[in-house]
Amino acid sequence: QVQLVESGGGLVQPGGSLRLSCGGSGIIFSRNTMGWYRQAPGKQRELVATMSSGGSTFYVDSVKGRFMISRDNAKNTMYLEMNSLKAEDTALYSCNTAPPRLPSTSWGQGTQVTVTS
């Protein structure tokens, strides 16, 4: 059983910052390519950032320079630091392997990020 739990979301004004956390059990983050996904209302889920087992990172153009993915191997926890937030960043953020390969039940409930003035 793989369990993923996201936290750290909230309501923030444009230009603000948030740090999301993803804790995992039944999977070792440092042995997988992991990613942060987001889904806005009425939109498809999109991959925002990834980190490979070797530590290489990828960011979608819309967040490059503003978001940073990281992990703490000892805690088996991944993070997404989000800065200079924009209204278009509003979405439900989830973590999973990249590409998703785990059973559908492995998705956590996500954490909501709302950017509004």
Describe the structure.
By secondary structure, the protein is mainly β. Helices cover 0% and strands 47% of the residues. The protein has no helices and ten strands. It has strands spanning 3-7, 10-12, 18-25, 34-39, 46-51, 57-59, 67-72, 77-82, 91-97, 111-115. Strands 2-10-9-4-5-6 form a six-stranded mixed β-sheet, with no helix packed on it. It is globular and about 40 Å long. It starts with a strand and ends with a strand. The mean pLDDT is 96.
List keywords for this structure.
single chain; 117 residues; mainly beta; 6-stranded mixed beta sheet; 4-stranded antiparallel beta sheet; 47% strand; globular
First and last CA, distance:
40 Å
Beta-strand fraction estimate: over 45%
Please compute the radius of gyration using only Cα atoms.
13 Å
Q: What's the total helix number?
A: 0
Number of strands: 10
State mean pLDDT (0 to 100 scale).
96
| Relative helix content | under 10%
- Silhouette: globular
Q: Based on helices, strands and strand pairing, what is the structural class?
A: mainly beta
In terms of per-residue confidence, which ranges show pLDDT below 50 for 5 or more consecutive residues?
Answer: none
Strand order of the largest sheet: 2-10-9-4-5-6
Largest sheet: 6 strands, mixed
Return the string of H and E elements: EEEEEEEEEE
